[in-house]
Amino acid sequence: MDGFWDDTDSASKIQKEKYLLESVVNTFNLIKEHFEEFEILLEYAEDGGDEESATEAHDVVEKLLKQFAEAEKKVLLSEDADPNNAIVTVNAGAGGTESCDWANMLLRMILRWGEQKKFKTQVIAVQAGDTVGIKSATVTIDGAYSYGFLKSETGVHRLVRISPFDSNARRHTSFASLYVSPEVDDEIEIEILDKEIKIDVYRSGGAGGQSVNTTDSAVRITHFPSGLVVTCQNERSQLQNKLQATKVLKSRLYELEMEKKRAELAEQESNKKEIGWGAQIRSYILHPYKMVKDHRTNFEMANADKVLDGDLDGFMDSFLRWSVSQGNEK
Length: 330
Description:
Structural class: alpha+beta
Oligomer: single chain
CATH class of the largest domain: Alpha Beta
């Protein structure tokens, strides 16, 4: 269409919506196609067909079940914001070096998950730990349904391991939290009044290199009514950092409003508890055995290293099913 790409933002939104709709239609068509193929092969096998046709029928069933699982997943991801991009914030708990290192491991886990999905990942703000790791970081994950999947990760994550920083090789327990919100676009109106915010600019810190700003271009926005504080230091200009920080703030305010509408304020408050004992949603045990267990769904995996390398699909799927069952019980 003439002029379609004149407004790139609008065109991108239309393209995204087109992709989502095509994804649903294609999944339905594949299920229909495999089912019809299975019926033909089954009829042939019942009429005395050879062993090869029975094998083909089995293969078609496998494809049918796989496509059905994809369709089921799209049904589970049915909330309004589920198709949106995600903004993830990692915060270290109390515990100094141990917690900062654990927060950095969680950040890597989320980034690895996004990379495996071929999503665009970008770290937009980092506060380094005093000696190792990070105190906090904020990243954007751009990809269809990235928020819908990553919302399962919101909460406190607990790590048990032999500390690499303890000369006596003792076992330590560390805590860090993840908070995930959907990126909001211009179609969702989030009003932020000038009198409700304070904008500070400062010079970005870092280990050096071309990516570190040498001017006061980093931006911190404090939103007084909610108490939210967001920062962005990754972009090259102060204006770009301000726009990115504003986007993050709007996304978090939207998520807070979504939680109110879903009557999940109690859960939201639990996510704001002290990052420590009794508040964790998931435990990662690396010693004396290896196991990762989600305390909401009871889903667990013995291959902890694989989980920390971004294999989160099992936890995300079990969370979506658990969320639906919780909603049905209300």
